[in-house]
Design a protein that fits this description.
flat, 50% helix, mainly alpha
C-alpha cells in the first residue's frame, strides 16, 4: 500500500508539472471560500483536499481496491481522528475554565468537508459562529 500510494502521488505530481492535469481550484478560490465560511463548497467535493485522491477510473480493479483502502485510512487517521482530538481539546479547555474567554484559531484544513472541528463541537452541544473576514471580534 505504501508503494502504491507513493507511485500514485508521484504520477499525480508529474501530471500536474507536465500540465496534463490541473488542480480544480486556485489559491484565490480557497481564500474566498474560507472568508465566506463556505469550505464545504463544490471545490471540496472529495471531502477534503488534504488527502491525496488515489481513486480513479483508469486503475485496474485490484489497484482500485488498494486505493479505496488507502483513501479510507488517510481520511480516518489524518482527518476525522485529528479533528476529534482537536475538538475534544477545545471542549476540555472550555469546561475546565468556564469563566475564561477563549479565541481558537485553526488552519483551514480543520474546516473542510465532513467531521470538522466545528462538527465535533456542535455534536457536544456548543454553538459555533463564523466570523467573516474584516469583521471585528
Amino acid at each position: 500500500q505504501v508503494l502504491f500510494a507513493l507511485n500514485q502521488t508521484l504520477l499525480q505530481q508529474e501530471s500536474l508539472r507536465a500540465g496534463s492535469s490541473q488542480i480544480p481550484y486556485t489559491t484565490e478560490d480557497l481564500i474566498k471560500h474560507y472568508n465566506c465560511g463556505d469550505l464545504s463548497s463544490i471545490i471540496f467535493n472529495h471531502d477534503t483536499s488534504q488527502v491525496p485522491n488515489f481513486i480513479n477510473a483508469t486503475l485496474p480493479a485490484h489497484e482500485r481496491v488498494t486505493a479505496q483502502e488507502i483513501d479510507s485510512y488517510f481520511r480516518q487517521e489524518l482527518i476525522y481522528k485529528r479533528n476529534e482530538r482537536m475538538g475534544r481539546r477545545v471542549k476540555d479547555l472550555l469546561e475546565k475554565y468556564p469563566d475564561k474567554s477563549f479565541f481558537f484559531a485553526f488552519g483551514a484544513g480543520h474546516f473542510m468537508g465532513n467531521n470538522t472541528v466545528i462538527d465535533v463541537l456542535r455534536r457536544e452541544g456548543y454553538e459555533v459562529e463564523h466570523t467573516p473576514a474584516g469583521q471585528a471580534i
